[in-house]
Amino acid sequence: MVKYGLDYTRCRWILPLLLGIGVIFGIIALAGRGWLESQTLPYVQQASLWQSCRRPDQGGEWNCVSLMGYAWGRAAAATYLVGFLLLVICFALAIIAFAIDTLRFNFIRGIGGLLFVAAVFSIMGLVIYPVKFSSEIEMTGINMFSWAYGFGWTTAIMEICLGFFFCCLPNYEDQILGNVKPTYFYSSP
């Protein structure tokens, strides 16, 4: 964004856009039923962040049990939800920060710090869930942590990467605002 002459006015919405994509991925992870699924036939196990479902045979009814009855289920859901809410707050703050004509770079660095805190909470929830789920819930067959769990990890990785971008962006304040004279590497013959 800085080195190759991309205009700041054209590129100023890239970081808030990436935060918005992270929010969408977080919503998919929170609402998705694919945190854990059976890998092979017959598909007998399926779980989300909120509940675990199993069925006795291929054509049977799903029997669901809430994971909120377990202390670790509440802890995993709460920590991931706190990380997601901090991500939404960072998204709103980034929209405000980049909508103002005079960009406040210290404000942007604060958003980066808040993104790191959000990543810590998200990762705590993403680690608690599989460790305690596999030890507390009886699983039959071959199971895998699936697509919604992957969206959760994608959200956490995006929080970390965007946290670095938001923290490092103020270091290039003069280049972004166009206050630096270009240097030409030309030697006369």
From TrEMBL:
Record Pfam families: PMP22_Claudin
Localization of this protein: Cell junction, Desmosome; Cell membrane; Cytoplasm
Biological process according to GO: apoptotic process; cell-cell adhesion
Membrane spanning residue stretches: 12-32, 77-100, 107-131, 151-172
Keywords tagged on the record: Apoptosis, Cell adhesion, Cell junction, Cell membrane, Cytoplasm, Membrane, Transmembrane, Transmembrane helix
Record-level GO cellular component terms: cytoplasm; desmosome; plasma membrane
InterPro entries found in the cross-reference section: P53_induced (IPR015664), PMP22/EMP/MP20/Claudin (IPR004031)
Membrane-protein topology: Multi-pass membrane protein
Family affiliation: Belongs to the TMEM47 family.
Protein's recorded name: p53 apoptosis effector related to PMP-22
Species assigned in the record: Thryothorus ludovicianus (Carolina wren)
Gene name of the encoded protein: Perp_1
